[in-house]
Specification:
The protein contains 11 helices and 8 strands. It is α+β, with helices and mostly antiparallel strands. Helix 3 crosses helix 7 and helix 7 runs parallel beside helix 9.
């Protein structure tokens, strides 16, 4: 793609900037971290404002209610909303950036018509039910079972680190539908209505005092077969589609925010050694930004960001942690202030090299799948 912005891109920038200047002062105050009812109202209200103005799902095709924006317009949108400190996608994250694009790519016409419009309007919130206590980085080891019973699956098991499960209407759920198949081939991808009997959601408190993650227990939960996305036992392939969005385009907003925070840190960093180190971090973020442009362009062309998503996730998460480490050293004693933006972000980003695939796993995948290197030898003890 052409990395320069065109005249039409700049016209779009001016239009968007004008809308943000008019709209942001009208927003209510942000709710506190632990006011989840308030956070849902705030984030879904913002999503509805975007929808009414024609900015929701800016990269989604028009046939699914989006703007069908070019890759460069998508990046302009992210740059301008971040510059203006507009609300982030928030509790709409899973629906807008994970489940929605997956259904758009792999779902049936009926599923697209039923689930995509409410996501764009902010009417429905989604959560993610992938990881389990014994299946994190090795997600294919999941054990939550789904046994076919007529027109339903009967689901039993436990999920953990389920983002926004306590306020969600639906969940993207991975289940094992064939216990006798090789572990990557017996998995299915289901749409889970979160008000179904047999679901027990328990929030997990984080170091920040928030509880966006939950444990979810499923006890004889009946899920319609019609809620399966794709073919039975083809869920692992569909999960790779979800991961491509999660690890690629879903990090774009965070990357823009990281570049803004680097600029803010430059304004307060006085030590030459700190400024030199910050220069290296900014250079890394700029390189990831260039790769992001490539991925967004490919996603617009092919429907998925492709293999570059793996590299963005790895490079961005580690660069963001370097920025966090440096910010704490620059702040010195002020780093003890838990309400400081840099401190909050440092604590939040501790999980980045674990969530959505650990850095170690990402390196293995890149080396084996992209570079064609031999598989890592599995050592066993005698």
């Amino acid at each position: 793609m052409d990395l320069r912005y065109s005249e039409s891109d700049e016209l779009f920038r001016a239009e968007l900037r004008s809308w943000l200047e008019q709209t942001l002062p009208q927003l209510p105050n942000r709710p506190s971290w632990n006011d989840w009812a308030g956070r849902r109202r705030y984030d879904t209200d913002w999503q509805r404002r975007l929808f009414d103005a024609g900015y929701a799902g800016i990269n989604w095709p028009r046939e699914f209610g989006g703007r069908d924006a070019s890759p460069s317009e998508q990046l302009v949108f992210l740059e301008e909303t971040t510059r203006a400190r507009a609300p982030y996608v928030g509790v709409n994250f899973v629906g807008s950036l994970h489940a929605g694009p997956t259904i758009m790519t792999e779902g049936s016409d009926e599923q697209k018509a039923k689930y995509l419009p409410p996501v764009l309007r902010g009417d429905e919130v989604w959560c993610q039910g992938f990881s389990e206590p014994g299946a994190g980085s090795d997600l294919a080891a999941l054990r939550t079972s789904a046994v076919r019973d007529g027109d339903h699956y009967v689901v039993n098991g436990q999920k953990i680190w389920c983002s926004f499960a306590h306020i969600a209407d639906y969940g993207e759920l991975l289940v094992r539908t064939d216990p006798d198949a090789p572990k990557h081939r017996g998995i299915s991808w289901l749409i889970l209505p979160m008000d179904t009997p047999g679901i027990d959601v328990r929030p997990i408190d984080t170091v920040l005092g928030s509880s966006e993650f939950c444990e979810v227990f499923l006890d004889d939960v009946r899920v319609p077969v019609a809620n399966r996305v794709g073919a039975e036992n083809d869920g692992w392939r569909i999960t790779q589609v979800t991961f491509a969005f999660e690890r690629g385009t879903a990090f774009v907003s965070e990357l823009v925010e990281a570049r803004r925070m680097a600029e803010d840190l430059a304004a307060i960093a006085r030590d030459p050694a700190h400024r030199h180190e910050l220069g290296h971090v900014v250079a890394e973020l700029d390189a990831v930004w260039a790769l992001t442009k490539r991925n967004v362009s490919r996603a617009a062309r092919d429907g998925s960001p492709g293999d570059g998503a793996l590299m963005v996730k790895l490079a961005y998460s580690e660069s963001r942690q370097k920025l966090g480490d440096l910010s704490v050293r620059v702040l010195d004693r002020s780093a003890l202030d838990i309400d400081n933006e840099f401190v909050v972000e440092r604590l939040r980003t501790l999980a980045l090299t674990i969530a959505a695939g650990t850095s170690q796993i990402q390196r293995n995948i890149i080396s084996e799948r992209l570079l064609g290197l031999p598989r890592e030898q599995q050592w066993t003890s005698n």
